[in-house]
Amino acid sequence: MVLFGRAVTGDLGANPVEELTHRSGDWALRFLLLTLAVTPARNLLRWSLLLRYRRMLGLFAFAYALTHFLIWLILGQSLMWPEIFRDLIGRPYVAVGMLAFVLLIPLAATSAAAMRRRLGATWKQLHRLVYLSAALGVVHFFWLTKADWSEPAAYAMVLAVLLVLRVRRQPARRETE
User: Fold this and answer.
1) Which of the four pLDDT bands, split at 50, 70 and 90, describes residue 124?
2) Residue 141's pLDDT band (cuts 50, 70, 90)
């Protein structure tokens, strides 16, 4: 909402499209990491109520990622397909960001309880793509950052901690003969 207010009042600086693109991407990554933090936080705090908010946080992450993508596509590239393809091929961070976004699409599309029931165990496997999407989002942020890597490094650290907590919670698998 603050970003929208800044856009309406003309308070986005010298390059408003870049500001909108960067801020929407920041929020997409923040919500993605918050989504991933729900289960470890629930396990540490023993507060089941947090699980009620995981889907909403994930959908916020998708909404911001979609906004980020649409700002780049419409305002940044003016829907000029040759330029879009040139950007995808010539700038690896754009391709990685696009892949991170594309991986979120089936997650958002299958986030409803009815889809969870319909997909059964497949739903859980599909939704593990969120970890890959988050990792790609962090790589995207690192690659587009030109000077100060402290912010993408902080996101990378948070993701690393969340991944370690996830791996530590996995039960040992027995090998079958």
Assistant:
1) confident
2) very high
Distance CA 50, CA 36 (A): 12
- Residue bearing tokens 């705090």: 45
- Residue 98 belongs to what domain range? 15-168
Asked whether residue 127 is assigned to any structural domain, the reply reads: yes
* pTM of the predicted protein model: 0.86
The runs of H, that is alpha helices, within the chain are 2-8, 16-45, 54-70, 81-90, 92-109, 113-119, 121-127, 129-144, 150-169
For the purposes of burial, counting CB atoms within 10 Å of the CB of 16, is it exposed (0-12), middle (13-18) or buried (19 or more)?
middle
Q: Which of 151, 68, 145, 143 is nearest to 102 (CA)?
A: 68
> Per-residue pLDDT tens for 91-102?
999 999 999 999
| Residue 60, both tokens | 């916020």
Q: What is the pLDDT of residues 50-65, one digit of tens each?
A: 888 889 999 999 999 9
Q: Does a structural domain hold residue 173?
A: no
In a domain, 102, yes or no: yes
Task: Please count the structural domains in the chain.
Answer: 1
